[in-house]
Amino acid sequence: MRHRRLFWAAILLQVLVLVGMIGSHGYTLWTGRPVMLKTAPVDPWDPLRGEYVTLSYEISTLRHDQVAMNGAPYHQMQTVWVLLEQQGEFWSAVQVSDQRPAASPAQLAMRGTVAYYDGGVGRPGDVRVRYGIEQFYVPEGEARGLPGNGDRANMAVEVMVDSFGRAGLHRVYLEGQEIRWR
User: Fold this and answer.
1) Is the dihedral of CA 110, 115, 117, 121 positive or negative?
2) Would 17 be classed as within a structural domain?
3) Which of 65, 123, 62, 57 is nearest to 97 (CA)?
4) CB 157 within 8 A of CB 173
């Protein structure tokens, strides 16, 4: 009888973990604030991983001469907060910090992870940040129609940013038109 309870407890724990992961992403998409970001496609297809598109955002590479670097120097895999501000149709980074910054009503703070920092002690550097929205998968056979590495397409995405600073990819636009698959 005890083994049966342990078995069902293990099953329940696994189900709860999966529901939690899905629920966390769903919460971001349902309650998040929409943000339009300018992007460029990098790799439209990989035979080993399937059909996906890797996106490179303007807010992913934060240059020390353009964005306030509060809390530098940074290190790889460090959690950082990027303060975004809407400038026209798109949002741009105005500050990066190792602590969540106070945002005005016209701003929002998005959480990311440092992928690369080229500065050092006593000298500023640029920061490369990942937000967890750098890839999206497409139906089989559809990725080949998307622009590839080096193509200069007018591409943008709408992401939802929740109150915890997590971002979720919501919509993808190519040349002003939302990409929809059958």
Assistant:
1) positive
2) no
3) 62
4) yes
